[in-house]
Amino acid sequence: MKHIVLLALNNQSGSALITPLEILSQVAESQDLKLTVATLSGGPVVSRSGLEIAADQPLAEVGAADAIMITSCLDYQSDPEQQTAALCWLREQHRQGTLVGALGTGIVFMALSGLLENRTATADWQGVSRLREAFPDVDFDPRHTLIECDGLVSCAGGYAGDVLSLYMVEQMFDKDTAERCAAELMLDTERLWQNRHPGLLEYRLHRDNRIHAVQSWLDKHFAEKINLEALARRNSMSQRNFVRRFKEACGEMPLGYVQRLRIEEAKRLLEQSDLSVEAICDRVGYLTESHFRQLFKRYVKMTPARYRGQMSGQARSGRG
Questions:
Q1: How does DSSP assign the chain, residue by residue?
Q2: pLDDT class of 75 with cuts at 50, 70, 90
Q3: Can you give the pTM of this predicted structure?
Q4: CATH code at 97?
Q5: 155 near 101, Cβ under 8 Å?
Q6: Mean pLDDT, to the nearest integer, of 87-102?
Q7: Could you read off the pLDDT of 141-181 as tens digits, one per residue?
Q8: Residue 318 pLDDT grade (very low, low, confident, very high; cuts 50, 70, 90)
Q9: What are the distances in angstroms from CA 159 to CA 81, 131, 241?
Q10: Which domain range does residue 308 map to?
């Protein structure tokens, strides 16, 4: 029987625990899997929204585990003595070969344990500068959704709970089990298992956290009609100040960045799906196929059909 432990802390995001719990519970219905929700004291924890989450047992009483998921780290200093014991426990589990994963702010807790020293981990774009200052011996690389380094798995981004949970399932069982679970829960595996827009990393190499937040929102909503005034108001800025600040941070105007997001997604779909150009045009947010083709050729320097053929040829060459 496989044993996965979910470490829950006070004042954490409720969804950071509930999402993995839902996914792993689904797997436990058909696989030999034991789930344990552990807290530092063994008592319930309260999420930042006020949701009380019950624990199965205190961390000190948890036996051997095959995998551990640290689901958050917003209130890790509430009990320094228990925190120290938890970090020691984490180090010992990893020494014994347990796969240790952390999502979102849980990466901070993993870093506090010292396990990430001289290793690489991912992080959220908005917090990576602070993490680099706090943990200079860790190589934080926010360009990737998930990074595994020596049995330590870090996962960041809006779908971190889904991504890390399915990764754990794949490691504990196999990819078929993970894909079956994703299908049963209607999760978008293409979205979860790809670094969606690797061609746009250069536009993330700045330190304006508010603009990173805007970009993270656009990464999910680029196919919708974007209203600059509403977007600026949503982020407590005037439209003029928002556009200026976005351009200074990214070197690109907001709508230009949206176009690049759409084209990058179109490239991904041309590479990885059999969707028609018309269907891809609609999926990425363009009203007319002619406009999409015009923009695609401007950014990619070739037509969608030629791009698909070129990528298909490279894939066949790689397999051969």
A1: -EEEEEE--TT--HHHHHHHHHHHHHHHTTS-EEEEEEESSSS-EE-TTS-EE--SEEGGG----SEEEE---SSTTS-HHHHHHHHHHHHHHHHTT-EEEEETTHHHHHHHTTTTTTSEE---TTTHHHHHHH-TTSEE-TT-SEEEETTEEEE-STTHHHHHHHHHHHHHS-HHHHHHHHHHTT--HHHHSS-S-GGGGGGG-S--HHHHHHHHHHHHHTTSPP-HHHHHHHTT--HHHHHHHHHHHHSS-HHHHHHHHHHHHHHHHHHH----HHHHHHHTT-S-HHHHHHHHHHHHSS-HHHHHHHHHHHHHHHH-
A2: low
A3: 0.62
A4: 3.40.50.880
A5: yes
A6: 94
A7: 887 788 888 899 999 887 889 889 998 998 899 878 988 89
A8: very low
A9: 32, 20, 30
A10: 198-319
CA distance 276 to 19: 33
Based on the domain organization, do 146 and 121 belong to the same domain?
yes
Q: Token match 């196929």: residue?
A: 289
292 with 154, same domain? no
User: Among 177, 192, 207, which residue terminates a domain?
Assistant: 192
Here the tokens at position 19 are 């999402």
Long-range contacts of 288-295 (CB under 8 A, 24+ apart): 292/266, 295/259, 295/262, 295/263
Q: Token pair for residue 87? A: 């970090």
- Apex 57 CA angle, 56 and 62, nearest 5: 115
Please check whether residues 220 and 248 belong to one and the same domain. Answer: yes
Radius of gyration of the chain (CA): 21
Residue that is last in its domain, among 192, 207, 227: 192
Rounded Cα gap, residues 32 and 22, in angstroms = 16
Check the CA dihedral 318-266-170-145 and report its sign.
Answer: positive
| 178 and 291 together in one domain | no
Closest CA to 2 of 65, 69, 68, 46: 65
